[in-house]
Amino acid sequence: MAGLTPDTPTPTALTVHAQSRVLEIAFSDGSAFRIPFELMRVYSPSAEVQGHGPGQEVLQTGKREVTVVELEPIGNYAVKPVFSDGHESGIFSWDYLYFLGSEQARLWTDYLQRLEAAGMQRDAPMVAAGGHACGSH
Fold this sequence. Notes:
- The protein is α+β, with helices and mostly antiparallel strands and 137 residues long.
- It contains four helices and six strands.
C-alpha cells in the first residue's frame, strides 16, 4: 500500500488548501479527492504513527486543527508533508493518497471507533508514549 505500483493512477493536480485544511488531489483515472489534513495526520504512514508492525499503531488525538505548512516532493512517486504540530516523517506515495481519498468514509469511522474504544476524545492532547526509541523520526 505504501509503494508505487504500475497500476497506480498518478496525480494530475495537487493543491494545498490552508484555510479549509484539505489536500485536493486529482488523478489520471479521473478520480479527485479532498483529503482533510487531520485524516492525513492520524493515518500518517510514518513509524511514529503506524509503529513497526501490526498492533503497534499509536492512536493520534488533538489533530483537528493541524495544518500542512510545507509539502515536499519525493521523486516522482510521493510527497512529504510537514504538519503544524512538527510531524514530518511520513512519506505519502501516490497510491497511499489514493487509498486515503477513496477510503475516507471507512477510515473516519474506524478512527472514531478506535477513539471510543480507547476512551479518548478526538480533541484530547496527545500523551507522550514513553520508552519509544525509534531512530526513524
